[in-house]
Amino acid sequence: MDIQFNNLRQEKGYSGVIFCDQNCRLIGFGRKLDQLSKKHISDLIKGDESFQSRNSKHYDYIIIHQPENLKLKKLYVFKLKKYKEFSTRDFQILGGHLQSIISFYKEDRIIVYPDGIISSKVSFVNSVGELLLGLKLSSYEFNKYHTKKEIKKKKKVKIHSSQYTRISKNIEKIEAVLEGVRLTRDLVTEPPNFMTPPKIAENAKSLETLGVKVKILGEKEMKKLGMGALLGVGQGSIHESQLVIMEWTGSRNKKKKPIAFVGKGVSFDTGGVSLKPSNGMEEMKYDMGGSAVVIGLIKTLASRKAKVNAIGVVGLVENHIGSKAQRPSDVVKSYSGQTIEVLNTDAEGRLVLADALWYTQEQYRPEVIIDLATLTGAIIVALGDEYAGLFSNSDKLSKQLTASGEIEGEKLWRLPLNDRYDKMLNSSIADMQNITNGRGPGSITAAQFLQRFVNKVPWAHLDIAGTTWTKKPLPTSPKGATAFGVKLLNRLVSKYYEGK
Ligand code: BES
Ligand code: ZN
Ligand code: ZN
Fold first, then answer.
1. What mean pLDDT comes out for the span 17-43?
2. Rounded CA gap, 304 and 298, in Å?
3. Which of 134, 147, 257, 277 is most open to solvent, judged by the fewest CB atoms within 10 Å of its CB?
4. Atom of ligand 1 lying closest to residue 348 CA
5. Count of Cβ atoms closer than 10 Å to residue 289 Cβ
């Protein structure tokens, strides 16, 4: 899809999208039409029954074929419900729905006339940006492995607005978000025989062209450092484990403490010797979702030259079976020095994060540290695909994250941490064990495990097991990889951590 901005009125061969309010009164472009067209359109949209009810809290729409006196092929009139109260997310959703309607009617040339949709909550320039973001996010496609490509005409969407210069300037910011989300979705969607730990690392490395400093540690380096927890998980795989460190220095003060993001990157999780059941195992290709979000986010921050110092660290391993794989009851020594009894090789994400978290703190002394991981099936039992789990030792950081998620429609729900849960991880033969005995609050104890590797720094852990992949299309994400977290964390940075 190709989006252009112009201040042309109408164009031949294009269809148009205009808007009216709840009482069917035209707004923006519609109001500026000549009397004849205006009357014609107003007459057609007067009756409520003429609108297709979408059962949406945002809009209904009507299609006018060959509108009188206009050079447009068709005119889509959207009746917006309470647009004066639209939030950022409402504009993204409207954009997403617009895209699905355009696709449904196979429109490949569209002009949108957004003037007049003025909300009291979002500036006009931002609302057009968010609408476009939603439109583009929902049109994501991944068809690399189809050998017979459908030949589709490239879609062209034009925005006609009197504010067109200001809108086009703002669009760079939106493009940066799109770039990050696209990269995240691509990485997650790629099959695991292609997207191995070294291949994910290579993708991170490509961010160097944007001015990101990228360092890759292989197994030899990690062994030297003593990262026994991460290495134990990858030892059954033919693909080399990697730790990738991305540094974006965008703050004027180069020495300013960074904000750090850490991601779980298990390129495929068989469960290891504690093998997963075959039913649904294919889903475990998205067990590198946390790392993909971190890589995509750094891409977004670098693309928009965010005025922040940010670090992205991803632990990349494949959790496989085989004669070299670790056994349940093995004891490993983590980079922090603490020893872990691995009672279940399928609770591997926390082992990877243990070393990645410790390394990040030791090397960078970050201001805050946020990790993302498809960590537990239990978080899906608790929150489904509606909310990701949030665990934190800081009320302030939790509030900032929750508020950012609310704005972007990537919602978080905080769950508790507590010493009593922590004690459940004590082991009789090592400093801790990687699972608790018996049934318990699985997502919480996993977070408690991570907290043992957090050293007096404000920290938050997002369990994104339920939100990384969607089986049904969502307003701004087709089926598949959602990239949940990229928009949220980009918003967190711009709202709270960017020195303007
Ligand atoms: N990658 C899984 C968690 C997961 C489950 C992600 C479903 C996405 C969808 C994780 O490594 C895992 O296997 N966790 C175990 C932990 C258990 C052994 C304590 C789980 O959740 O069952
Ligand atoms: Zn697992
Ligand atoms: Zn896993």
1. 83
2. 10
3. 147
4. 11
5. 29
